[in-house]
Amino acid sequence: MSDAEWKNRCGSEWGLLGAPMPDGLDWKSVYEAKPFGRNLLRNPSPFGLSKDIPLPEPDLPDEPDFGPPRFQPDEDFSGWTTNTEVLPYDRSGIPAGAVVCQLPQYSWFSLEQLVDLKAEGLWEELLDNFQPEIHIQDWYEESQLHDSIYQLQVKLLGADKSTVISEYTTSPTEDRSRYSRAWKEVSHVFCSYGPGVRYVHFLHKLKNMFLNGFYKTMFTNSTVVVRPRRWSQPHTAECEPWAVEKDTWGEPKKLNSCQIKNFQTEK
């Protein structure tokens, strides 16, 4: 096919109504990159689990682990940049003079990725003028280890990889009044974020504990997906309602704000 035919194919299949599509791009390469509707994060489920499968109960050791404390899981986290922050012992609530044989030791295990939007097939004119929606989704387990076991920070960055154009953060507090062990969802949609975005920096932290054994908080199905807006609209502070009930990939959608739930991604 000619370059013009590849360009038309991109516009029609991805529903880029009103999007700038300059003639100078290699549209065959753009089409083959498939920048829309796929997860741009690598290794999104390193624990080998899925949000669609109930969490297994944790394995309890047959004997206490009195060896050196562990602070990081053993799984393969290739694609992620990881870091461990060991937290000081929490001695609050212990009466003066009380003898404590052992205290739990907590740590934050952080994982981050930097997504290069242009390298994934998007182009500057689209990002600056059309500003496609950038969907974020993550799932973490109710590990019951602490009132705060999960944090998420996602930044849209400029070409220098440091200028923050838009940002979303959350640090939920867990309800431990009753036992519950399930996947918990966190999601957000960036829209009308302004020109200059070239990178997405995705960082989440999960709290682990060591007390006669290592106990971790797991995550799964971490997702960064770019989706085109469904029709020409002014850039407003919030996402406008979607004009159709099914998106380009045939999935039902009824969204009306920058906070959404349960969006599906192509694997």
Automatic annotation (TrEMBL):
Residues 42-67 are annotated as: Disordered. GO terms for molecular function: ubiquitin protein ligase activity. This is P1, F-box associated domain containing. GO terms for cellular component: cytoplasm; SCF ubiquitin ligase complex. It comes from the Eukaryota. Residues 30-228 form the FBA domain. InterPro entries: F-box-assoc_dom, F-box_only, Galactose-bd-like_sf. GO terms for biological process: ERAD pathway; glycoprotein catabolic process; SCF-dependent proteasomal ubiquitin-dependent protein catabolic process.
